[in-house]
Amino acid sequence: MRGFESAVTLQIYGNDGRIRLPEKLIPPINSGGDHRHWWQLDDLIVGQNEIRASYRLNGLNKPKIRIDRETGEINIKGTGQDFSGTCEKVDPGQRRF
After folding, report:
1. Which helix (H) or strand (E) holds 23?
2. Distance (Å, whole) CA 89 – CA 62
């Protein structure tokens, strides 16, 4: 698959979280996501320097997420196509502009 531009959204609340994926990262045979492309995060660890988690796309595919909390770099591996990018922290209810 060729490279593409897109965005993922992560929501983390304490020890729980979820990820919203672009359609290009969702395989045709998938399970666990809702109709809006949200998947629950498993094995979520929010550390001082990084955030790690995984989620189950289907029975054979459980991608792993790593976010560097200093640089904001995010990497997702295990989707059939790896994803990398830069995170921006957003506080709900706060204006960006």
Report:
1. none
2. 25
Tokens of 29: 């045979």
Distance CA 95, CA 97 (A): 6
Residue 75 has φ and ψ, to the nearest 5°, of: -130, 135
Find all residues with CB under 8 Å of 36, minimum gap 6, and list them. 20
Predicted TM-score (pTM) of this structure? 0.84
Q: Which two tokens stand for residue 23?
A: 């359609």
- Give the pLDDT confidence of 46-94 residue by residue, as tens digits: 999 999 999 998 888 899 999 999 999 999 998 677 889 998 888 878 7
List, in order, residues 6 or more apart from 41 with CB less than 8 Å away: 10, 12, 16, 17, 18, 19, 53, 54, 55, 65
Q: Is residue 67 a contact partner of residue 87, using CB atoms and an 8 Å limit?
A: yes
